[in-house]
Amino acid sequence: MSQHQTSTRRLARRVSWETILALLLLFAVVGGTFLNKDFLTAENWSNLLANFVEIALMALPLSLIVITNEIDLSVASMLGLSSSLLGLLWEYKLAMPLAIAICLAVGALCGALNGFLIVRFRLPSLAVTIGTLALFRGFAYIILGDKAIADFPPEYTGFGIGVIPQTFIPMPFVLFIVLALIFWVGLHHTTVGRSLYAVGGNQTAARFSGVNISRLKMLLFIASGVISALAGIVFTFRFSSSRADNGTGFELSAIAAVFLGGVTVQGGKGTVTGVVLSLLLIGVINNVLTLADVASEILRIVTGSLLIISILLPNLIASTRERWRLMQRQREIAKLGAASVTK
Amino acid sequence: MTKNSIMRTIAAVCSVTFLAIVGYAQDKPIKKDLKFTIIPKNINNPYMVIQSGGAMDACKELGIEGKVVGPSEAGASAQVPYINTAMTQRQNAILIAANDPNALVPYLKKAMGQKISVVTLDSDTAPEGRSIFINQASAEGIGQSLVQTLAKEIGSGGDFAILSATPNATNQNTWIKYMQEELKKPEYKDMKLVKIAYGNDEDQKSFTETQGLLQAYPDLKGIISPTSVGIAAAARYISSSPYKGKVALTGLGTPNQLRQFVKDGTIKEFELWNPADVGYLAAYAAAQLASGNIQGKEGETFAAGKLGTRTVGKDGVVLLGPPTVFNADNIDKFNF
């Protein structure tokens, strides 16, 4: 009975967070439409969706990592490394498909290094990836120094800034949609996906129920490396610019989107839908405020506040519930005590 | 109609035509109801604030609705959303100090395709990304005069270092290149550039980099910092350290920022063009472009308000003029 109750309560809470996000998104879109006549134009939406595509890509594997109660802070540095490497290889006249493949492979290696240190030596991922954040960015600077490479072939930069013919949907955004679908199926409709929640919820229990935690985490960090490298390639083509400092600071935006999406810091909770909604919400809010010529400091304050609220709100709800339950139990005990005394 | 009124009509028509012709010949008109977006490198950079202020002053003179928007950090891609927004808002011109010479080009090209005039100021993009670039001073001139100033102060002998902005800052790297060219001349054979340090245009980093330079090279005679953030941080460190008076400091900075250090003797001389004039000239150039009076071709001339008439040079570059040298004698005449 009580078990049934908690599971429905958990379900209710999960549904409600995404519903809240969806409502906020709707509110932001309606607000934007009323505030600015240019908001609901195809051109604006094209820019809006293209704007956060790298962060969105990196947020996908990051969500899964946070669900298993780990974190990857090195994503933006892997983006920078991949972007620099792509530039270097292109400068050395390598064929573009081969250069792209090498960048993805190096991304996988970087992710594997993270995974190896975390799984093999049981080191905290926070510390390891702070280290590799600096390390990978350092590699990027070694590769490219203060150079910038810009002469990428038009058919590739065309992909970066182009839209699907006859629509306003940017090409790189399609890549994100496809990957989001794959992650959604993977997380919510496969055994591996379900075992991620088990690992995040209770690692020991998950181990006893036969989940190979080490392999799972290793795979997640490799996926994060590959997709961050992919984001680096998209970034390079979108701006036709390969530089060592590309994407500096993007890790914080990606993490913010993951937390706002309802993936909790403690692990074990969160959905792909939530993260996609939060990415869209942040994108729309940024766009509306930029169109209204709001200063970029204010923009950061808004995103920062959203993040704090997103962490604070579920915690507040949980703690009020807990307190209420305690109070009720105390009242019951008091009642029982009173009954025994009268006996 | 009486004969008198016919005469009067003819006279009126003649005088109107005459005025129109004279007006045209003197000064091609600026279109009405123009809207300009001014995008600095980043919005809380004091130098950029002055530059954008100059552009806004020119907009006011010309009756243009101008606004300053931009990112809070100077990343390669951070300005793109603001370019896109200007397109969506159908502005008539974009004035931009580019954070990256290439990353903005596809977006600026798109803007020009929508008949938006693009003027770069302070830092240029590749020429196909804009019609006109307002250059504050020739890079060669800056590089040469900074080396000359330092040589004068340290007597042409000894080790010195450069404290720059980020390793990929377009301006700083060009100036440093010309400094190195200048150093090849025989009169500087005893001057040795021992290190180029990067303060990333962050106050704290520039401060600790200065500290590091002076510790690593005890024989250092001087520092050149061709960035306003760098020189101010370096001056702050040197003025409160035992190196004060022993290590010469020069570079590019603003008078208000460096006044106290010129007065306490940490800095003898430093240089800068007036950033407000850079913005002012850019706004006039953009207004002339947006009104169809010029196209940004070499040899075209245009009126630039209080700065007089300017000529478009090779590759659409318009030069502001030589930098001003500031020292204890003249610094109080400037307030920016």
Keywords:
heterodimer, A: 343 residues, ABC transporter involved in vitamin B12 uptake, BtuC, 78% helix, globular, B: 336 residues, alpha/beta, Rossmann fold, six-stranded parallel beta sheet, 10 helices
Overview in brief:
The complex is a heterodimer of chains A (343) and B (336). With 343 residues, chain A is mainly alpha-helical.
Radius of gyration of chain B: 23 Å
Q: Structural class of the helix and strand makeup of chain B?
A: alpha/beta
How many individual domains of chain A? 1
CATH architecture of chain A: Orthogonal Bundle
Q: Quote the average pLDDT of chain B.
A: 89
Q: What does this molecule look like?
A:
By secondary structure, chain A is mostly helical. Chain A has 14 helices and no strands. The longest helix of chain A is centred in the last third of the chain and has 47 residues, at 296-342. Chain B has 336 residues and is α/β, with parallel strands linked by helices. Chain B folds into 2 domains: 35-136 and 275-321, Response regulator (Rossmann fold, 3-Layer(aba) Sandwich); 139-272, Rossmann fold. Chain B has 10 helices and 14 strands. In chain B, the strands form 4 sheets. A 6-stranded parallel beta sheet of chain B has the order 2-1-3-4-5-13, sandwiched between helices. A 4-stranded parallel beta sheet of chain B has the order 7-6-8-9, with helices on both faces. In chain B, strand 6 (158-164), helix 6 and strand 7 form a beta-alpha-beta unit. In chain B, helix 2 crosses helix 10. Classes of the chains: A mainly alpha (343), B alpha/beta (336). At the A-B interface, helix 2, helix 13 and helix 14 of A face helix 3 and helix 4 of B.
